[in-house]
Amino acid sequence: MRIPSLLIAIPFLGASAWAQDDSSDIYLQFGLGFVGSEDAEDVPGGTVGFDPGYGVSLAVGYEMFKSESLTFSPEFELYYQAWRVDEEDLPKIPSAVEDDAKTFAFMVNGNLDWYITKQFSWYGSVGVGWAATIDYSSWDSGNLVQRDNSGVAGQVKVGLGYNLGGSYDLRLGLRYFHTEPIDVEDTITGDVSEIDVGQLAVEASLRWGIFPFGH
Predict the structure, then answer these.
(1) Residue 37 near residue 136 (C-beta atoms within 8 A)
(2) Could you give phi then psi for residue 196, rounded to 5 degrees?
(3) How far is CA 23 from the centre of its chain?
(4) What is the dihedral of CA 39, 159, 163, 35, to 10 degrees?
(5) 90, 105, 120, 190: which could join 131 in a potential S-S bond, CB 3.0 to 4.6 Å?
């Protein structure tokens, strides 16, 4: 499964405009992570587990409030993740051929950074948005049809930030991401089941300032 080229290309398009100013207000952030998914329960196949996958994110934000120890930043984020049904559980799903699962979401986040020293900070973030793609291939084959492929999404992120110098920060943390339940219909029996699982990611992100304003 390929990572969308948009998420890889965009961080490098404005390389000549990267700022080295400590007071940069607008920033870009690029992240990579390992994704683990909760088991799907009471679905065709009973309880089905998933193998770990990966996540890729790209965000742009604005530090609209600053003090010596706190900053608040509204942020817009693109988030893609992909994982697979556990190969041992795949035979449980009637007519399943492919094991892929993926989501692609547009998120609006509110980030709070608490600086415990000049270089180290704790961060927390809450976000809501729209998952334009929610795909569980294993439950969309044969007599099984996935009736929904998009929906509302929410997430929470926490972690530790470290200033690398200038306006560059490395961030390590956890992300819990969840979309609304997805309906799967058995076209033979007419039964409808819900896939309602969330994903926990361990991720690393690089944030860098682009343009300073008002300083």
Answers:
(1) no
(2) -130, 90
(3) 27
(4) 0
(5) 105
Q: How confident is the model at residue 12 (pLDDT cuts 50, 70, 90)?
A: very low
- CA neighbor of 209 nearest in space, from 20, 10, 15: 20
The CA distance from 12 to 108, in Å, is 22
The per-residue DSSP string of 75-139 comes to: EEEEEEEEEEE-TTTGGGSTT----EEEEEEEEEEEEEEEESSSSEEEEEEEEEEEEEEEEEGGG
| Model pTM score | 0.85
Query: pLDDT value at position 17?
Result: 34
Protein fold of 21-211? Porin (2.40.160)
Locate tokens 């900053």: which residue?
71
53/37 Cα distance (integer angstroms): 8
